[in-house]
Every structure is written in C-alpha cells, then in structure tokens.
Amino acid sequence: MQQATSAKEGADHVLRDVIEMDTADHFRLFEELQPSLEEPRTTLCLMEVAPNVRRALAEAFYSFDDAVVREFLGRKFTSRAKKDLDEISEITGVPRRSCLRQFDNLKR
Questions:
Q1: If you count Cβ atoms within 10 Å of the first and of the last residue's Cβ in the chain, which end, N or C, has fewer?
Q2: Which pTM was predicted?
Q3: What does the H/E/C string look like for the chain?
Q4: Residues 71, 33: one domain?
Q5: pLDDT per residue as tens digits for the range 36-52
C-alpha cells in the first residue's frame, strides 16, 4: 500500500515539474514576442506565422478587461499612474502584469 502511495506522489511531482516547465516556456515565448506585438505592423508581419495566428496574437495582446479600463477612467496616464497598478490589480483581480500591458496599450 505504501509503495502505491509513494509511486503516486512521485508521478504527481513529475507532472507538477512538467507543468512548471511548460508555463515557464510560455512566459519566455511571450517575452520574445512582446516587442513584435507592441509594433505589429512593422515586426509581426516579418515573422513566419500564419495570418490567422498573427491576428489572434494581436487581438489577445490588445484586448482589454472592462474592470481594468473602468479603473483607468479619470486617471492621467503618467508614471505616477503606473504606481497605482498594484491597487488596480487588487481591486479588479486581474494580474498586475496584465494591468501594465493594458495601461501601456491605452497609452500608446
């Protein structure tokens, strides 16, 4: 009985490691794509990506959360407003990184 439990724990540990590595890979890929997504007309079209995938990437990158945009309304887009992103993230439940992306997209 104890061997079955330890085998299951080992499998769970391996699965957790695979998920962590896959997630880290996705974050690295996004960090490499982010500059291209910020200037899609000039750089995203140079990448060998199917047009429908390119369009889906750009749409996802430039999407907005209603709750976050509501919090941005009435605020000036200054460096001081960037300091409020922690508060906005807490209020809306949207990760700070996503709030920052939306802030930068609105500012652009």
A1: N
A2: 0.59
A3: CHHHHHHHHHHHHHHHHHHHHHHHHHHHHHHHHHHHHHCCCCCHHHCCCCHHHHHHHHHHHCCCCHHHHHHHCCCCCCHHHHHCHHHHHHHHCCCHHHHHHHHHHHHC
A4: no
A5: 777 766 555 556 777 78
